[in-house]
Amino acid sequence: MDNFLTEAGGIMGNSLIENREFNEICYKRQAHYYETDRMDVIHHSNYIRWFEEARIYYLEQIGFGYDKMESLGILSPVLSVSCEYKSSVRFHEEVLIYPKIEFFNGIKMAISYVVKDARTGKVRATGESKHCFVDSKFKPIRMKKDFNEIYTILSNCVAE
User: Fold this and answer.
1) How many separate domains does the chain show?
2) How much is the pTM?
3) What is the Cα–Cα distance from 130 to 12, expressed in whole angstroms?
């Protein structure tokens, strides 16, 4: 399956991946009114949704979006997710979310997130999500063996 990504629509920026430039990807997000709680701040549960949005964006930028992953029969369920809140985000404020692959061994992956105020750069929250790779029957996939090209892409994106 070495040419599977070409068959599935190709990958982008392979040389950029090798240069680790994808560790600087950020996802811009404006806080919406419906995300606020009675205290006029973004409800804590929304940060987990923002992490998912940033993770999907990050994977698309490295050429391995969820649409391609799922078309190949690869699922990536969340094993755990955590968030530490540093300061509140309010309605209409913009944040920058920096996802980074911190760990990847071909079976599991951990992604960290730093949420910063777009205007001041102040850290608003940090977090992490852990994932594994399974097939449609939820049997573990060994990326190095079964999808070597994806394994290489993800391995090259691990933060130093």
Assistant:
1) 1
2) 0.85
3) 25
Range of the domain at 61: 4-156
Q: Residue 138 burial (CB < 10 Å; 0-12/13-18/19+)? A: exposed
Looking at residue 57, its amino acid is Y
Token digits of residue 60? 């698309």
Measured between alpha carbons, how far is 139 from 132 in angstroms, rounded to an integer? Answer: 10
Beta pairing class for 94-104 and 123-132 = unpaired
The residue type at 92: H
CATH of the domain at 56: 3.10.129.10
Nearest-angstrom CA–CA distance, 114 and 67: 25
CA distance 37 to 42: 6
User: pLDDT tens digits for 49-99?
Assistant: 999 999 999 999 998 889 999 999 999 999 999 999 999 999 999 999 999
Question: What type of residue sits at position 98?
Answer: Y
pLDDT tens column, 31-63: 999 999 999 999 999 999 999 999 999 999 998
Q: Where are the alpha helices (DSSP H) in the chain?
A: 4-7, 14-18, 45-61, 66-71, 143-146, 148-156
Backbone φ, ψ for residue 98 (5° rounding)? -110, 100
